[in-house]
Amino acid sequence: EEDLLNDVCREVVEKWSESQIVDAKEKKEDEIQAIASMMEKQAKIVVKPKEVSQEEKQRKAALLAQYANVTDEEEYPFPDPVEARHAASAGALSALNAPPALFRNTNVEDVVNARKLERELLRDEFQKKKEQDKLQREKDKLAKQERKEKEKKRTQKGERKR
Length: 162
Description:
The chain is an all-alpha fold and 162 residues long. It contains four helices and no strands. Keywords: Coiled coil.
């Protein structure tokens, strides 16, 4: 009976290992099928190229041309102050030979304007404080005078009673 038992055990193990191999093959086939379906879905998604109008193409070309004209010698966006003075004194700002800008860098102007605004606000605050201090001094002066007058009246009243 031991031989029969060993044969049965061997047969059970063989059947079990065969079923594991079949399951593994099925899993692989399922994975392959999933990957194939994902690839099909991606193939269906078509990205349409963006249609660019002629005007946008021209604007882009002009912008690229402008950047192509800027060299290392030029100090874009700030011209040389000496050249700017000479050009301004000659009355020809076009003497700088700068291409017409499609945009303006306003960073420096924004900072300068912000500082001006801050100074103006501080000046206004200082003026208000100055006026308030002046009013407070006047109030203090009046209060001091009133105290002196009350003291004077009290002393006069006391002297009359004597």
